[in-house]
């Protein structure tokens, strides 16, 4: 079965090197709303308002077509055996393994028959959150400082729209200037990629040193004051617990 996942994912990666990052984001956003039950995969229908249309997902949660491809291949090989929730979990793991890391996936998830768009709007962390808001959201889910750092480490691959980091580049905390803690060379690079006009809302790498690899360079970037999102940059200026975890640069970030 896992070979089937690898086959579909490797083919998808040929045309979209970011597919692993896209799928792990979908999986995280699904798990954050009433558990890892695949509810984010449900589309609008009678009695269902899709979580895909919630503000944290609309226009930014992508890669669903690859989940559909995996589902079709699985149904052809073993009809009605693997749940969609497990498909999403395995696809996330395979996407990460293609980028350089791995972990064992436990199976047996059951699919949700309902979606909760309202909770997706209120519970999911925002890309514009500051560090305190992020930790509050995650602690409400029973996650501690180690979990926050590990989950943030998934930003070792993938890309973000410039609009998500522009406040830190041009109007940090309403100051009319950039985040003063950002590395100056990194800031100059971001100014070139993400101009104030933000025409077309271009994309930039979450991890500028190895954007397509799932490694621990993200933590090195943070120690060099090169965090793209505000919550990334503030990981090293949070409590000593967070700073120490970042300095340890765990070999596996999940």
Give an overview of the whole structure.
This protein has 254 residues and is mainly alpha-helical. The chain has 2 domains: 2-123, Orthogonal Bundle (Peroxidase, domain 1); 131-248, Peroxidase, domain 2 (Orthogonal Bundle). It is 47% helix and 2% strand. It is built from 12 helices and 2 strands; from the N terminus they run αααααααβααβααα. The chain has helices spanning 2-15, 19-31, 64-77, 84-99, 117-123, 131-139, 145-152, 162-170, 184-193, 217-223, 230-233, 240-248; strands at residues 159-161, 203-205. Helix 1 (2-15) runs antiparallel to helix 3, helix 1 packs across helix 4 and helix 7 packs across helix 12 (240-248). The longest helix has 16 residues, at 84-99. It is globular and about 55 Å long. This is peroxidase. Substrate binds at residue 125. The active site is at 29 (proton acceptor).
The assigned CATH architecture of the largest domain is Orthogonal Bundle
Give the total of beta strands: 2
CATH class of the largest domain: Mainly Alpha
Q: What is the N-to-C order of secondary-structure elements (H for helix, E for strand)?
A: HHHHHHHEHHEHHH
Beta-strand residue percentage: under 5%
What is the CATH third-level topology name of the largest domain? Peroxidase, domain 1
Strand order of the largest sheet: 1-2
Shape: globular
What Rg is obtained from the alpha carbons, in whole angstroms?
A: 18 Å
Structural class: mainly alpha
Distance between the termini: 23 Å
User: What characterizes the major β-sheet?
Assistant: 2 strands, antiparallel
Please give the share of residues in helix. 40-55%
User: What's the mean pLDDT score?
Assistant: 92
The helix tally amounts to 12
Number of spatially distinct domains: 2
Q: List low-pLDDT spans.
A: none
Binding site for Ca(2+) 1: 33, 35, 37, 39, 51
Binding site for Ca(2+) 2: 156, 207, 215
EC number: 1.11.1.7
Binding site for heme b: 155
